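Form P-L/3: holo structure prediction, ligand magnesium ion.
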Amino acid sequence: MVDLKRTELSLHAEKAVLVQSYRAHEREFARAALKELDELARTARANVVSVLTQQRNQPDPASYLGAGKVRELARLCERVEADIVICDDDLKPAQVKNLEKRLEVKVCDRSELILDIFAQHASSLQAQLQVELAQLEYTLPRLKRMWTHLDRMAGGTIGGGIGVRGPGEKQLEVDRRLVQKRISDLKSELEKIESRHHRTAASRNEKFHTIALVGYTNAGKSTLMNRLTHAGVAVKDHLFETLDTRTRTWSLPDGREAMLSDTVGFIRKLPHHLVASFHATLEETREADLLLHVCDAAADNAVDQINAVESVLDSIGCGEKPGCLVLNKIDATDDRARLPLLRRQADPAVAISAKTGEGIDELEATVQEFMDVSQVELSVETGVGNGRLFSLLYEKGAVLGRSYNDGKVSFRVKVPPSVAGVIEAMGGKTRRIERTPTAANP
Ligand SMILES: Nc1nc2c(ncn2[C@@H]2O[C@H](COP(=O)(O)OP(=O)(O)OP(=O)(O)O)[C@@H](O)[C@H]2O)c(=O)[nH]1
Ligand SMILES: [Mg+2]
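OUTPUT (holo model):
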């Protein structure tokens, strides 16, 4: 029977060789990508012992690298006594199978590596279940491959008995069903957690503008969260430290308050199974009135990181949300002349150091300005007995007028955009009076 735990790949202390195939015109980009792969492997606590790259028009469909390069890699693996080869791209199951056969070491791809890091860093039950779900979804089409491993390790006796090559199809079918069952159990367990979570998130939205910190992993989101709200979120110089959303009140200098959420970091080619299974964690991002896109301005590939984040935001339906680009780590940016170039990536953009506090006043001013202009003006009609809704509207402090008609009361109010849905949910019939321009769309 399949061991569901085998879907976890532990790279801890494994001797790893990193492998990359890149196109000639992508040399610079490939160098940064390799550095990132190295960081990912070290974050997974692998012991990186060597690197091998090949310039090709496209990866070989059968074995990722060309035949000669695979032979070179096999010799290298033998010499450095590698336990695992990690490829910078996602591999098709057949490519993994072919490479493993020729190299006689485990082969893993970029998605598996990222999934492994998520598994190591998941501390809440929700994050653990989300990662397990993503790992199983990733594994399902590759179940055969797992069996090939078992076959080799047990001298061909598992999955079909001596003399039978490959797994018994019947057994494979049983395993597939087992994995599918676990996937559906995980989904329903997650749904329960998500509905509880949704209720608390909705009640929070009633009062404030909601703002989410988004950005590339290791950009400094949690450091900024701590500076703005004293949340005490863990900060580490490694990738994917934060996997759970944390929300705290942010008191702005003018006395207003906003709800600020720190959230999971993104990366280039984030495995789509992870994005799908973390959809609840990404809820705060989707429901936010404003996204603060934190980027590491000291990183050589800052622009690529900004683009990668934009594309994940697009993929989760947040591409059009009002946002502010926050260029962080300016204390560590040697070449400050780069800042104007980075500022041009988005409007508005502010340069800060979450570490030293430089630029935080400009960030606060930008957010306050956004809060001023992003209010929406609504007419709200409800029954005269709906006291709960009355208090909500007055708590916002922006009731512009009130009139009674036929047992109904109509308000004219200004509220943060995220509150409109809450008013409807509390029995208020809303109509937008005019569209006020936002900071991002003046
Ligand atoms: N020099 C400098 N380092 C910073 C600054 N902000 C954060 N860092 C460092 O960058 C590293 C990552 O910081 P985090 O706040 O954990 O980054 P994150 O974006 O939350 O990362 P993940 O949760 O892993 O996605 C840590 O070593 C921080 O000390 C800054 O303004 N200047
Ligand atoms: Mg973090």
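COMMENT: The radius of gyration is 26 Å.
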